[in-house]
């Protein structure tokens, strides 16, 4: 395995862990407020979120060949700001 593949794999694991932790905390908040989400609605939410996350990985990998790292950092700053 080359080092760039390992870096991408580690980034994917960190992102997936943070998204899972965020969903876990949101579920705890819903549970504390006695809000129940039907199974079918939860599956739709899960599928949509997974598709968007996967599309983001693919699009980010594609754009990494065309954009310098500095531009990516500035774009991320603007989005988060």
**Can you count the helices?**
3
> Pairing-aware structural class of the strands and helices?
mainly alpha
Distance between the termini: 36 Å
Q: What is the helix content?
A: over 70%
Write down how many β-strands occur, each being a DSSP E stretch of 2 or more residues. 0
Order of secondary-structure elements:
HHH
> Mean pLDDT across all residues, rounded?
84
- Spatial extent as radius of gyration: 16 Å
Low-confidence segments, ≥5 residues, pLDDT <50?
Answer: none
Q: Which shape, going by the Cα principal axes?
A: elongated
Biggest sheet layout: none
Our estimate of the beta-strand percent is under 5%
Q: Can you characterise this structure?
A:
83% of the residues lie in helices and 0% in strands. The chain has 81 residues and is mostly helical. It starts with a helix and ends with a helix. It has helices spanning 3-32, 39-63, 69-80. The chain has 3 helices and no strands.
SSE map:
Elements: H1 3-32, H2 39-63, H3 69-80
Q: Tags for this entry?
A:
single chain; 81 residues; mainly alpha; 3 helices; 0% strand; elongated
Brief summary of the model shown:
The chain is mainly α.
């Amino acid at each position: 395995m080359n080092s760039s593949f390992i870096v991408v794999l580690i980034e994917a694991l960190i992102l997936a862990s943070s998204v899972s932790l965020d969903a876990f905390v949101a579920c705890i908040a819903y549970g504390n407020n006695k809000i129940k989400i039907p199974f079918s609605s939860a599956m739709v939410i899960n599928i949509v979120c997974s598709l968007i996350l996967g599309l983001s990985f693919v699009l980010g990998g594609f754009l990494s060949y065309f954009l310098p790292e500095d531009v990516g950092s500035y774009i991320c700053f603007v989005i988060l700001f």
